[in-house]
Amino acid sequence: MGALDYLSNFCTVTTTRSKHKAMQTVEIKVKMDCDGCERRVRNAVTSMKVEVNREESHVVVSGYVDPNKVLKRVRSTGKVRAKFWPYVEQHLVSYPYATGAYSKRAPSGYVRNVDQAFPSSHDPQDKVADFFSDENVHACSIM
Protein backbone atom coordinates (compact mmCIF):
# COMPACT_ATOMS: atom_id res chain seq x y z
CA MET A 1 0.00 0.00 0.00
CA GLY A 2 2.95 2.34 0.58
CA ALA A 3 3.96 2.25 -3.11
CA LEU A 4 0.46 3.25 -4.25
CA ASP A 5 0.41 6.15 -1.81
CA TYR A 6 3.81 7.25 -3.07
CA LEU A 7 2.72 7.15 -6.72
CA SER A 8 -0.59 8.86 -5.98
CA ASN A 9 1.30 11.87 -4.66
CA PHE A 10 2.63 12.48 -8.19
CA CYS A 11 -0.82 12.28 -9.77
CA THR A 12 -2.74 14.57 -7.46
CA VAL A 13 -2.55 18.31 -7.15
CA THR A 14 -0.97 19.20 -3.87
CA THR A 15 -2.36 21.99 -1.80
CA THR A 16 -0.68 23.72 1.07
CA ARG A 17 -1.17 21.64 4.16
CA SER A 18 -1.54 23.30 7.50
CA LYS A 19 1.16 22.24 9.90
CA HIS A 20 0.01 21.08 13.28
CA LYS A 21 1.62 22.91 16.15
CA ALA A 22 3.62 20.85 18.58
CA MET A 23 2.64 20.50 22.21
CA GLN A 24 4.55 23.22 24.06
CA THR A 25 4.84 24.77 27.47
CA VAL A 26 5.28 28.54 27.44
CA GLU A 27 6.45 30.30 30.58
CA ILE A 28 5.86 34.04 30.86
CA LYS A 29 6.86 36.60 33.48
CA VAL A 30 3.96 38.99 34.16
CA LYS A 31 3.64 41.34 37.11
CA MET A 32 0.24 40.81 38.71
CA ASP A 33 -0.67 42.90 41.75
CA CYS A 34 -4.30 41.95 42.38
CA ASP A 35 -6.99 39.39 41.65
CA GLY A 36 -8.21 41.49 38.72
CA CYS A 37 -4.79 41.34 37.01
CA GLU A 38 -4.64 37.60 37.52
CA ARG A 39 -8.17 37.14 36.16
CA ARG A 40 -7.43 39.25 33.03
CA VAL A 41 -4.30 37.24 32.25
CA ARG A 42 -6.12 33.95 32.85
CA ASN A 43 -9.05 35.00 30.61
CA ALA A 44 -6.68 36.07 27.81
CA VAL A 45 -5.51 32.50 27.39
CA THR A 46 -8.68 30.61 28.34
CA SER A 47 -8.54 28.16 25.44
CA MET A 48 -5.29 26.72 26.82
CA LYS A 49 -4.23 25.06 30.07
CA VAL A 50 -3.06 27.89 32.34
CA GLU A 51 -1.25 27.93 35.69
CA VAL A 52 -0.82 31.32 37.38
CA ASN A 53 1.46 32.02 40.34
CA ARG A 54 0.94 35.64 41.36
CA GLU A 55 3.66 35.64 44.07
CA GLU A 56 6.36 34.70 41.54
CA SER A 57 4.77 36.69 38.65
CA HIS A 58 4.83 33.44 36.69
CA VAL A 59 2.32 32.18 34.11
CA VAL A 60 2.63 28.71 32.56
CA VAL A 61 0.58 27.97 29.43
CA SER A 62 0.47 24.44 28.00
CA GLY A 63 -1.05 23.29 24.73
CA TYR A 64 -0.68 23.33 20.98
CA VAL A 65 0.29 26.99 20.88
CA ASP A 66 2.65 29.45 19.29
CA PRO A 67 4.76 31.07 22.06
CA ASN A 68 4.78 34.49 20.39
CA LYS A 69 0.99 34.50 20.06
CA VAL A 70 0.59 33.60 23.74
CA LEU A 71 2.88 36.47 24.70
CA LYS A 72 0.95 38.80 22.41
CA ARG A 73 -2.35 37.78 24.04
CA VAL A 74 -0.99 38.38 27.53
CA ARG A 75 0.35 41.78 26.47
CA SER A 76 -3.08 42.66 25.04
CA THR A 77 -4.45 42.68 28.61
CA GLY A 78 -2.41 45.81 29.35
CA LYS A 79 0.63 43.95 30.65
CA VAL A 80 3.02 45.33 28.02
CA ARG A 81 6.08 44.52 30.15
CA ALA A 82 5.31 40.79 29.98
CA LYS A 83 8.18 38.69 28.66
CA PHE A 84 9.26 35.09 28.39
CA TRP A 85 10.33 33.55 31.71
CA PRO A 86 14.09 34.26 31.98
CA TYR A 87 14.83 31.97 34.95
CA VAL A 88 15.60 28.30 35.50
CA GLU A 89 15.54 26.32 38.71
CA GLN A 90 18.77 26.62 40.64
CA HIS A 91 19.40 22.87 40.90
CA LEU A 92 19.32 22.51 37.10
CA VAL A 93 22.32 24.80 36.61
CA SER A 94 25.74 23.32 37.27
CA TYR A 95 27.32 26.66 38.28
CA PRO A 96 24.52 28.95 39.57
CA TYR A 97 26.78 31.62 41.11
CA ALA A 98 28.55 32.57 37.89
CA THR A 99 28.59 36.20 36.81
CA GLY A 100 25.22 37.17 35.40
CA ALA A 101 23.34 34.12 36.65
CA TYR A 102 22.32 35.35 40.08
CA SER A 103 19.52 37.92 40.15
CA LYS A 104 17.96 39.69 43.14
CA ARG A 105 14.68 39.86 41.23
CA ALA A 106 14.53 36.12 40.63
CA PRO A 107 12.10 34.17 42.81
CA SER A 108 13.53 31.98 45.53
CA GLY A 109 15.24 28.90 44.08
CA TYR A 110 15.69 30.37 40.57
CA VAL A 111 18.64 31.85 38.68
CA ARG A 112 18.91 33.49 35.25
CA ASN A 113 19.20 31.24 32.25
CA VAL A 114 22.54 32.41 30.84
CA ASP A 115 25.27 30.55 28.98
CA GLN A 116 27.89 31.84 31.42
CA ALA A 117 26.25 29.85 34.19
CA PHE A 118 27.84 26.67 32.86
CA PRO A 119 31.51 25.93 33.59
CA SER A 120 33.91 26.23 30.70
CA SER A 121 35.57 23.03 29.53
CA HIS A 122 38.39 25.02 27.87
CA ASP A 123 39.97 26.02 31.19
CA PRO A 124 43.67 24.98 31.21
CA GLN A 125 43.56 24.31 34.96
CA ASP A 126 40.93 21.63 34.40
CA LYS A 127 43.18 19.88 31.89
CA VAL A 128 46.10 19.87 34.33
CA ALA A 129 43.91 18.50 37.12
CA ASP A 130 42.64 15.75 34.82
CA PHE A 131 46.20 14.83 33.83
CA PHE A 132 47.05 13.83 37.42
CA SER A 133 43.69 12.27 38.19
CA ASP A 134 43.40 8.74 39.56
CA GLU A 135 40.62 8.09 37.06
CA ASN A 136 42.91 8.84 34.11
CA VAL A 137 44.58 5.59 32.98
CA HIS A 138 47.31 7.51 31.15
CA ALA A 139 48.16 9.63 34.20
CA CYS A 140 51.66 10.14 35.45
CA SER A 141 52.93 7.01 37.24
CA ILE A 142 56.12 8.21 38.90
CA MET A 143 55.48 6.35 42.14
TrEMBL record:
Keywords: Metal-binding
Lyase keyword on record: no
Signal peptide (UniProt feature, chain positions): none
CDD domains: HMA
Gene Ontology MF term list: metal ion binding
HMA domain span: 23-82
UniProt keyword Hydrolase, yes or no: no
PANTHER family: COPPER TRANSPORT PROTEIN ATOX1-RELATED, HEAVY METAL-ASSOCIATED ISOPRENYLATED PLANT PROTEIN 21
Name of the protein: Heavy metal-associated isoprenylated plant protein 21 isoform X2
Species for this entry: Arachis duranensis (Wild peanut)
Organism placement in taxonomy: Eukaryota, Viridiplantae, Streptophyta, Embryophyta, Tracheophyta
